[in-house]
Design a protein that fits this description.
Residues 11-165 form the DUF5931 domain. Keywords: Kinase, Membrane, Transferase, Transmembrane, Transmembrane helix, Two-component regulatory system. GO terms for molecular function: kinase activity. By secondary structure, the chain is an alpha+beta fold. It folds into two domains: 4-176; 247-383, Histidine kinase-like ATPase, C-terminal domain (Heat Shock Protein 90). It has 14 helices and seven strands. It has helices at 4-34, 42-64, 71-86, 88-91, 94-98, 111-141, 146-201, 203-217, 220-240, 255-259, 279-299, 332-338, 343-354, 378-381, and strands spanning 251-253, 266-269, 276-278, 306-312, 316-323, 358-363, 369-376. It has a five-stranded mixed sheet with strand order 2-4-5-7-6. Strands 1-3 form a two-stranded antiparallel sheet. β4 and β5 (316-323) form a beta hairpin. α1 packs antiparallel against α2 (42-64). The longest helix is centred in the middle third of the chain and has 56 residues, at 146-201. The N and C termini lie close together (5 Å).
Amino acid sequence: MKPPARKDALKPLWRAAVLLRVITLVFAAGVVMTHDGEYARTWLAWSTIGAMALWTLVTSIHYLRPGRGSVWFTVVDLGVCCALMTLSRMALTHDQLAVDAVPLLPTVWVTSVVAVGAIRARVVGGAVFGAVISAFNYGVRGYVDTDLTRDMVLLIGVGIVVGMLSLNQVKAAETAERLAQAMRAEAATAERERLARTIHDSVLQVLARVRKRGRELGGEAAELAELAGRQEVALRALVAAAPLESTAGGEADLRPRLQVLTNDRHQVSVPATAVMVPEAAAAELAYLVREALENVDRHAGPTARAWVLLEDLGDEVVLSVRDDGVGIPAGRVAAAETEGRLGIARSIRGRVRELGGTATLETAPDAGTEWEIRIPNAKRGTR
């Protein structure tokens, strides 16, 4: 799937190709009107113009819609244009074809399909489509001369120029998207640095003081000191983490959303390169991991540790959350769901199912617990 920026970049060229076909259709009709009564089969000449008008309508609707259709439709478009060119052998007289050099029935109307091929497949597509139209022009005429060769050079040249233009349009759109993303990242970094200074001067100092004083007092205050220490570590990780970036295509890097969950009991491992997923999925996955880690803190035991592993397998993203706690007794989860306490089923399995993925739970008494979440990466898989 192409990013939205690429599609929008080529939209003016698609509109221009459609407009070119309409204008050249009017010109072709004018040529037939000029030679009306001179053709071997005048009815066939006007029938060809009618077929061209109908095909112009079909292709205009097709190329102006958001998806722009498939490559195969463009190939069919080329075939239709070539077929309409061959009708000239039956409609024009021998003298019109070989002596008077009367324009073929489609005349310059077929130039538009060369432009379409160039927009679709860049320089190579434009050159190939131009060469095919030129070959049919030679074949219908039945001879080769300077004028036909000039037409071939112009057709192939138009294909190459339009192909280069479409390529430059796409590159310009990609550059603009990268620039916009860099500006968003710069703004997010500046805001994060401002918040970091504010947090450091206020919240972090308070937490550090609570931690220190609680340890000095002991007793119940020591427990509060431990909680304050964990929050201090988590908050420092949040401040130091990379900004949460998103692209113009609605994708976000999942890594920083997980890295902020690191503390003295939770270890997070992520790939060195960005793991881009839809922004909504990134938020959901981060929430699920946070909830799983909170379950570890609440139920796995006071000394339990947890490990989060993120993997990008190309067509899917895999998240695993493992702990070395007390585990879950056999049948406990199923019994809770039967009794209507659907915390795990609704919060984790239900949310993952909505994302089109699967969530697998492996646990046993005194053997810890592991959640494995697999989410298909639809955009990556269709490229």
